[in-house]
Design goal:
There is one protein chain. By secondary structure, the protein is an all-alpha fold. The protein contains four helices and no strands. The protein is globular, with a radius of gyration of 12 Å. About 25% of the residues are buried.
Length: about 80
């Protein structure tokens, strides 16, 4: 949904959609921590969320999401 809102130039709804998607993905990962597909999806969503937060001027939030996605990718790479 976030990409659809971005295409419509609706940054606020895009950010909210990416936030919601990240929360849902995090719950899925918590239920199945060994599921690499869910972990990859969460990492990708967090990266998009980081971009949207940065665009909204939330440097701290962007850094947090970016660090989370990087930690997931490093875990998957090990």
């Amino acid at each position: 949904m976030g990409d659809l809102y971005l295409a419509k130039k609706d940054a606020d709804d895009a950010l909210a959609a990416f936030e919601e998607s990240a929360a849902i993905s995090a719950r899925l990962v918590a239920r199945e921590p060994g599921n690499a597909i869910n972990q990859r999806y969460l990492a990708g969503t967090l990266l998009r969320l980081s971009d949207r937060r940065a665009a909204a001027g939330d440097a701290k939030g962007a850094k947090e999401a970016d660090q989370q996605q990087l930690a997931i990718r490093e875990l998957l790479d090990s």
